[in-house]
Design a protein that fits this description.
It is built from 15 helices and 3 strands. With 317 residues, the chain is mainly alpha-helical. The protein has a 3-stranded parallel sheet with strand order 2-1-3. Helix 1 packs parallel to helix 3.
Length: 317
């Protein structure tokens, strides 16, 4: 008589990951992933892959489930580490990709495709300083496009303008025309940084300055709440008032006067709140109001709440 060996699905042995596994037993995929994140980046990658793979299978992400299974079976193989990290980035969980991609970079001897994917994951997580650290570590092997470009970009977002300018000066003109718009954007970003430095401190607390550098936009109002406790003018919660709306419109008028902006109209978005504020803007700016039309130039478009505007323009309730 032959006996069958009791084959059980492998389970994590790390207490934190085992807790995430048991959360999956209850069908709570988001909760399990939160526990994986809370466990930190030093967990055994093979066991992380077990949990992520099971979660991916439950969510119907076959590519990530397959990559996780391959990593769980061969956690020391650079290819398995890279494929798992790549799939995590593609599926919107770049934070789970970072430990695997770091290890893949080490085991691959610093392969540039792995480095680029790691930088992409860091960017998605807003960890620009760490992206800079990795790129600088491999500086002698970087191609100008995209690697040195990525170094400049992440250096700007990390607040290291000295490094960004030094590396930007080393960038050759892109041979591939697809990179020219990126080069132009970077030129404009650094030009705005020079302007912002002349106008203010542009230090870590200069929210308005960095908003201008990164996006070319100007913050009309800054929050006074928690300013010196790390908020630096950000609004964590805002209860609007007519006076605050008027203040924003008056500052818009001052900005247009200071920059020589000469719009010919105010375009009204279709949602009720934006239409009300747009009509007020037309009165404050002394301009005619007209319905919004895509492609119209030389006009001020006023949105009270972008979520409300999107719901109206897409027909969602």
């Amino acid at each position: 008589m032959f006996s069958r060996r009791n084959r059980r699905t492998p389970r994590p042995t790390s207490p934190a990951l085992l807790a995430a596994w048991e959360t999956l037993d209850a069908g709570d995929v988001p909760g399990a992933l939160r526990q994986v994140r809370a466990a930190g980046e030093e967990q055994p990658l093979a066991e992380v892959a077990l949990v992520v793979g099971r979660a991916a299978g439950a969510a119907g992400f076959a590519d990530l489930a397959d990559a996780a299974a391959a990593l769980a079976a061969a956690p020391e193989e650079a290819r398995a580490l890279y494929d798992f990290g790549y799939a995590c980035v593609e599926r919107g969980v770049p934070d789970l990709a970072i430990p695997a991609l770091r290890e893949a970079l080490r085991r691959s001897g610093g392969a540039l495709p792995v480095l680029r994917e790691l930088v992409s994951a860091y960017e998605d997580e807003g960890r620009h300083r760490e992206a800079v650290t990795e790129l600088v570590r491999h500086e002698g092997r970087l191609a100008d496009w995209p690697d040195r470009y990525l170094l400049v970009y992440n250096a700007v977002l990390a607040g290291d303008l000295e490094l960004a300018r030094r590396q930007h000066a080393l960038l050759s003109a892109p041979e591939d025309a697809q990179w020219q718009p990126a080069r132009d954007r970077q030129d404009r970003m650094l030009a705005r940084a020079a302007d912002a430095e002349r106008a203010g401190r542009l230090d870590a607390a200069d929210l308005r300055g960095w908003q201008y550098v990164m996006g070319g936009t100007v913050l009309g109002t800054l929050s006074p709440y928690g300013f010196d406790e790390g908020m630096n003018g950000r609004y964590a919660w805002l209860q609007d008032t007519p006076d605050q709306c008027l203040r924003g419109l008056l500052r818009l008028r001052s900005l247009l006067a200071a920059t020589g902006g000469r719009p010919r109209s105010v375009s009204l978005l279709p949602d009720r709140d934006s239409r009300i504020l747009g009509l007020a803007a037309a009165e404050v700016l002394g301009l005619p109001a007209e319905p919004f039309a895509a492609g119209r130039t030389d006009t001020v478009v006023v949105a009270y709440d972008l979520d409300g505007s999107r719901r109206t323009t897409t027909g969602r309730s």
